[in-house]
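Predict structure. Chain length: 207.
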Amino acid sequence: MDYNTQRKKLALPEYGRSIHKMVDWVTTIEDRDERNRQIRAVIAVMGSMNPHLRDVNDFKHKLWDHVHIMSDFKIDIDSPYPIPTRESFNTPIHTIPYASDPIKIRHYGRNVQQMINIMAKSGDSEIKEKSLLMLANHMKKSYVTWNKETINDETIFRDIGIMSGGKVKVSENVKLSPAYNLNTNAATAPAPVKNSKSDSKKPKKKK
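Prediction complete.
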């Protein structure tokens, strides 16, 4: 029995083994003109396998590149596009480093923690007080968005103290905006009261 696990590994499995065999056969053709003619026929078959991609930019360019990949970059043909190399498809992957700074209260997010860290290093000023008030209101809005419950200003001020290591303190006379003004979808927004009894007793207008 001839199993797929015993066969040559496919460079591009989405095209199937038949297309790979066609490319391998074209690679062995000695006459260059015949080789170019046959590979154009193979590319036409490859394009017909994905007709919905015919209008995509550089679709034909990708097909010619895929032919080189399936031939292990050994096929010698006159391509209308630049001949790719093995190195151009083996570019190293650059990993994105993750931030290692700890977040003391995670539900506020890293940006809030970084802003509090900056405030902890800056001196007292009017700009810092206004920025701190805006940040505290943002933290209150985030808290209500995720927790869906009422929250007092003292909780926000306490969290700022924790996140700053006690270096940032909010004045006692500071008052934050009500939760329903910060977040219109919050559960703390006051609901309008309907008086169904009084509405039912209203006389109906005569037509």
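Summary: Residues 105 and 159 are 8 Å apart (CA to CA).
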